[in-house]
Amino acid sequence: MENLIALLIAAPLLGAAVLLCGGRRLDAVGHWLGTLLAAVSFGLGVALFADMLGRSADNRAVHKHLFSWVPVEGFQADVGFQLDQLSMTFVLLITGVGTLIHIYSIGYMEHDENRRRFFGYLNLFLAAMLLLVLADNYLLLYVGWEGVGLASYLLIGFWQHKPSAATAAKKAFLVNRVGDMGLSIAIMVMFTTWGSFAFSTVFNQVGETGWGRNTTVGLMLLLAACGKSAQVPLQSWLGDAMEGPTPVSALIHAATMVTAGVYLITRSGAIFNQVQDVQTVVVIVGAVTLLFGAIVGCAKDDIKKALAGSTMSQIGYMILATGLGPIGYAFAIMHLVTHGFFKAGLFLGAGSVMHGMNDEVDMRKYGGLRKYMPVTFVTFGLGYLAIIGFPGLSGFWSKDKIIEAAFAKGGTEGWILGAVTLLGAAITAYYMTRVMLMTFFGEKRWNEEETHPHESPGTMTIPMIVLAFGSVLAGGLFSINESFVKWLEPVTSFSHGDSPVSAGVVTASTIVVLLIGVGLAWAQYGRKPVPVVAPRGSLLTRAARRDLLQDDFNHVVLVRGGEHLTRSLVYVDHTLVDGVVNGTAAGFGGLSGRLRKLQNGFARSYAVSMFGGAAVLIAATLLMRAV
Amino acid sequence: MSTATAVHSLWTTAADGKVDKIPAPHIEYAQLAPTLIVVGAAVVGVLIEAFVPRKSRYYAQVFLSVIALAAAFAAVVALAADGYGTTKAHIAAMGAVAVDGPALFLQGTILLASIVAIFTFAERRLDPEAHGSRVDSFAAQAASVPGSDSEQAAVKAGFTTTEVFPLALFAVSGMLVFPAANDLLTLFVALEVFSLPLYLLCALARRKRLMSQEAAVKYFLLGAFSSAFLLFGIALLYGYAGSVQYAAIADVVDGTVQTVDPALAGTMGNDALLLIGGAMLLMGLLFKVGAVPFHMWTPDVYQGAPTPVTGFMAAATKVAAFGALLRLLYVVLPGMRWDWRPVMWGVAIVTMVGGAIVAITQTDIKRLLAYSSIAHAGFILAGVIATNADGISSVLFYLGAYSFVTIGAFACVTLVRDAGGEATHLSKWAGLGRRSPLVAAVFAVFLLAFAGIPLTSGFTGKFAVFKAAAEGGAGPLVVVGVISSAIAAFFYIRVIVLMFFSEPKPDGPTVAVPSPLTMTAIGVGVAVTLVLGVAPQYFLDLAGQAGVFVR
Question: Where are the domains of chain B?
């Protein structure tokens, strides 16, 4: 059975190779081929899942050693896979949501002449992401990590004829490089410390290693996670990444790739559990990003950017949960999966709206669309209810657990984290209600002559419907009898923690803050008409519209600073280094020109020089004896 | 012991009529065969000049020279195979000549280099035919005044100076004895035997005859000057040791000999004589290797001499002179190495640095190569100073590698010609790589070897020499050597840049298509350069086995 693991990756990889090398001949069938191979991969995933369920909880993890990659004395790198409950969860999420989004893209990209290339990139992404979650060592994980980065770059810049898209792709790539550097440093430190990249070897030895090494590895892994998962301070690329086609935003920049950081920290739990200080940093990063993303989401008029802020915020929840240790890992992954469903559904819904609105993204030019796009309205609405944590829906179950776990952290920290997560829940309810009201309710704010809103074709609505089911049901299914936590427990371990507040109180407060958030949004956008031109807004609103000045900060500190640094280095290079080099060369040249004059062509002066030389030679020899 | 008693005893002994008979010398002809073959061939060459018709002389001389040198090389190989380089090494010819590893290795190198050099001597296709006869690099009639009617008549008559071949053979015979000489007089005789023919050869250029003659006169004057130093040094050492035999002098230096020759009672064992005499001897040899400050003849002579002669001189003379220097320092004067090592340090440093620096501003390719040879003399001196077994073998290897690169490089120089003969000014080499990629590429290989770039013999040799020097405690010298190499790399690479990355000039030189003779010389040079660069181990081992002097 474990032989199928390699096929799981091979199928989309083959698709990518065929689609990208096949040329225009495959234009007619390319999208079907890509979708088919994604579905094959999903089918294999389901088969492996069924097989895994057939075994007892302790025997579910399987390993498959494929081949020896770098068989060098003192440096052993293998290509091997590890399929345990954690990887399995990701495999099903990636291939399942991935297949749905492949289907959706068939309709969404119908009029794009490069549709075949698009599906090739999507397949490439699937293969890389599967490699990332299936690798049994950090070096191979790094290959997948870079692979998804590449696919992300290619897909953000898919419409590279738009300068904004090309720039956004570059920005995403550069910011991700910072994080990737963290991962590569972490891997190097691992190798020098433990002599191996393999998860098993590293995790077994981590307990006997000193604080310094573990802290370094932990912080570097966190840096990597921040880059990939758009967490503060490496969050700036995600908003711009919305320049990519909407299915890409749904699959890569909402459901799967951006959660790779959560996977990395959860997978490396054995390391993080050793160093409390690093866990504190993880929690802080999560808490800050949670509020940061939520605030940005409140101010954006671009529907996709509002959702991007929301993604950042929800991943903040997950990172925060992973920072809590064994009490949070399982809930982080659970929220990751439910978020995968409802956020992908929301993005697909946004794409459907744009599809019917001539690719308009400004929500101030929407309004009252519920009558024109009933299916989109219902599926989007269910996703909306799920994300704000409407009781009974997916988001309610998973987010509630994270808030509980935050309180369970204990002490002052627990209270602070609990408050932050509750505040985040209120803001989530606010900005999502705002999106909902501005898009589907109120009066029409679009030009009826130019725009003719219509429902999207079946290839697009069916995936949305499927995801809506996930948004509604997944959380509840996972929570029956704590099935999801028990499923993951062998990998991530689990402890209940010691909450100072009872679960009922947490749930009640969650519902209260939810109502406050919804109510505020209703007061602002439901009761009053939405102005077509955005009002000036408060200082905070204006800052939030500018992504809380993240780009300005980066520009002033990093770009300007970098420019100053390079300019001064160039100056030093020109004056000092080149000066010394050229000066030396000129010095030797001048010396040469002067010495050359001694060679005047007269045998008599040559003889004198020889005579003098002989005298010096004799004198020196005598002197050596005298000394 | 007082002087008066000594003189008296000499006188009384003489009066007693107990004069020893002069013993008949015992000569091991077989072991001296390499030298004897070459000397014999040179004598036959003179006879050919006297008796063979002018038309056939060229062919007869080339044939004789190549056969003689090949036979001599075969004799060297046979001796080495017989164990004379290692177990049977001994002193032959009544203590005059050593037959040992370094001698045989260097003789073999000299002979092979000479064969290749003879090929370039024999080249007759570079210039167009003059008056229906082929011409080589040498003057039609050396005795005629440049620009005179008699010169024109000689050119018209199609004369060629085929005497160059016996002259070269005489020079080779002297070079063969030079590194093997085991007493100071043999050393001196060998020096003169190879120097005098070289002076003549330098004067024989076909083109730019005045320059060539000037070079020859300078070389002769300065060579005579240095010979005088050498000879005086020999006299002082004889006064010090009472013998000209290397082993005997070494014994006196070491203090193992207590008996004093009564005739030299006033001087024997006087360290001042040893130090001054030793320094003068060193000076004579340093002149021949072209070390600073005894190098000043080198650029003028290298530039003025016919280019095939320059190549021959630069390669073979250097091998012979360094061989003699090694034997002198390792066999005769190891007892005073604490005196000569610091001095040689100084010489090596100024030679490396001076050669490299002055080469930077040279504009003539032959002068450039002359300064390059000075810098290389400095690098080899670093190996000489090592005073360990690796020092000897690394110098042997370096000499072998260097001589083939040198001959090949000068052979390339003969190919680049314009109306005035060889176009040696560097500006004319601009863009050569576009016009004749093959010649330029081959020359670039030689330049890279000179610069010591890996995968060429130059790197292996330089590495071996510097390694030996560093292990011999001359670390700072190695640092200076590496810096000098960096400076030297500048002007080698500059020529490559000039050839490949400059626009060719419209009135630039043409590249002559040579006969198979020069092609062979260049081909051998490239092959040796690359083989010794890529797979040097066999030859390093060979040099290592040969690196023991007999005493």
Answer: 26-545
Q: Do A617 and B283 touch (CB under 8 A)?
A: yes
Distances (CA, A) of A272 to A83, A321, A492: 21, 13, 12
A598–B296 CB contact, under 8 Å? yes
Angle at the Cα of A228 (from A227 to A232), degrees rounded to 5? 45
Give the per-residue pLDDT at B11: 47
State whether residue B421 is helix, strand or coil.
strand
Q: What is the DSSP string of A469-526?
A: HHHHHHHHHHHGGGHHHHHHHHHH-------SS-HHHHHHHHHHHHHHHHHHHIIIII
Nearest CA in chain B to A623: B339
Query: How confident is the model over B9-29, as pLDDT tens digits?
Result: 554 444 454 556 777 888 899
Distance, CA of B168 to CA of B66 (rounded, Å)? 11
DSSP strand pairing (B421-422 vs B416-418): antiparallel
Region A78-94: mean pLDDT is 94
CB B272 within 8 A of CB A622: yes
Q: What are the beta bridge partners of residue B183?
A: B245
Residues of A in contact with B364 (CB under 8 A): none
Nearest CB to A617 within list B217, B343, B490: B343
CB-count exposure of residue B283 (10 Å: 0-12, 13-18, 19+): buried
The 3-class secondary structure across A197-262, one letter per residue, is CEHHHHHHHHHHCCHHHHHHHHHHHHHHHHHHCCCCCCCCHHHHHHHCCHHHHHHHHHHCHHHHHH
What contacts A368, CB < 8 A, 6 or more positions away? Answer: A440, A441, A442, A443, A444
What's the CA gap between A19 and A27, in Å, rounded?
9
Q: Is B424 helix (H, G, I), strand (E, B) or coil?
A: coil
For residue A78, what are its two tokens?
């293998």
Please report the ipTM that was assigned to this predicted complex: 0.90
Please report, in angstroms and rounded to a whole number, the separation of the first and last CA atoms in chain A: 86
Q: What angle separates helix A329-356 from helix A483-492, to the nearest 10 degrees? A: 120
Q: Do A610 and B357 touch (CB under 8 A)?
A: no
Q: How far apart are CA A238 and CA A599, in angstroms?
A: 72
pLDDT in tens, A193-221: 998 899 999 999 988 888 899 999 999 99
Q: What is the pTM of this model?
A: 0.66
Q: Exposed, middle or buried, A382 (CB in 10 Å: 0-12/13-18/19+)?
A: buried
Distance, in Å, from the CA atom of A390 to the CA atom of A74, rounded to the nearest integer, reads 55
Select the residue of A585, A588, A612 nearest B293 (Cβ to Cβ).
A612
Q: What is the DSSP letter of A442?
A: S
Crossing angle of the two packed helices B164-177 and B33-51, in degrees rounded to 10: 160
- Phi-psi sector, A84: left (phi>0), alpha (psi -120 to 50), beta: beta
Taking residues A500-515, what's their average pLDDT?
90
Q: Report whether B168 contacts B66 (CB < 8 A).
A: no
Q: A613–B300: do the CB atoms touch at under 8 Å? A: no
* b/e per residue A400-416 (b: at least 16 CB within 10 A): bbbbbbbbbbeeeebee
Residue type, B280: M
Structure tokens belonging to residue B16: 């007693």
